[in-house]
Design a protein that fits this description.
about 140 residues, mainly beta, Lipocalin, 1 helix, 11 strands
Length: about 140
């Protein structure tokens, strides 16, 4: 997975809620700048547009930091507060050559974030599941070169 992360340049994402409301149902597309910081870290600067269920385009921006901890472990942090204050999300562990799971879900207040990465020849699919008292959401990212 590590070698493929460095090649990523674009993304598509589908976000939706499970349950009676589809207000959070949206599709997104964007660009990714994959910036190596040293031999074991990679910054993803993501930017693009969501299209909500009403058809309105909404800009988005995210910055993530990937760190190769070992051949079988890669950690992910969100840089919402900048590179000096990363928000650790989780560490992915290699299950097979094509499947990586987060070891422990990330807890944010009462919400829990879990993810899996599915590795394909020309893409990485990152599937998030967010659950909590008022959340039951899914994010399906597709990263490609």
């Amino acid at each position: 997975m590590w070698e493929q992360l460095a090649l990523i340049r674009c993304l598509t994402v589908h976000a939706y809620s499970e349950g009676p409301s589809n207000i959070w149902d949206r599709q997104g597309t964007g660009q990714v700048k994959a910036i190596p910081t040293d031999g074991k870290a990679l910054i993803f600067e993501e930017s693009g547009y969501w299209k909500n269920c009403a058809g309105k385009n909404i800009p988005f921006r995210n910055t993530f930091k990937w760190v190769q901890d070992s051949e079988r472990r890669i950690s992910l942090s969100h840089l919402r507060y900048g590179p000096e204050q990363p928000v650790y999300l989780f560490t992915f562990t290699k299950i097979t050559n094509k499947l990586w799971y987060c070891e422990v879900p990330h807890q944010c207040a009462m919400d829990q974030y879990a993810a899996e990465a599915i590795i394909r020849k020309d893409e990485i699919r990152l599937n998030w599941k967010i659950t909590g008292p008022r959340k039951n959401e899914n994010l399906h990212y597709c990263y490609q070169p």
